[in-house]
Protein: Caveolin
Amino acid sequence: MERKEEESQEVEIDLDSSEEFENGEDPEVLWKKAPPAFEEDDNIHTSTLVEISDTKPLINSRDPRGINDSLKVTFEDVIAEPVSVRSGDRVWIWSHALFEVSRVWIYRAVSVLLAVPVSVITGLLFALLSCFHVWMVSPCLRCLLIGTHWLQSLWSIVMEVIVQPLFTSAGRCCGGFSVHLAKE
Structure:
């Protein structure tokens, strides 16, 4: 434990500066030479599958797949005044402030009232549909495919023996025709 404390040091490098350092090296070269940071393992027995889970809520990233990108609405997306007509600056500032405050607080109030019941209903619906699909639809389709295997084989034979040669010969017969368009 003491070794980690000795090795950890803060290195501050300004990559935006165009100056060379005292030893004549570029900042990018120094950046590559910086010692790697050592992180402490709190629990060695925790697997990465437990850390990355679909059931663990992602507090920082609540829309990681970008499902609701269309709802990223700002004041300027909704209300805009053309150059020809303008309200007073105070009116514009207050309307902007009231729009943002009402949007945030009304969303919070409605989500408090609806988030839990809607999530319970959608979870119940998803569970019922999943159960129905796993225990009813998939076995029935599998039984149907097993029961109609002879029909699949018969259809395949009919296609290979009758339909394919018929269309192949029709294609070869019609393939000899050519059309030339000429302006008169």
Observations:
- The first helix runs from residue 2 to 7.
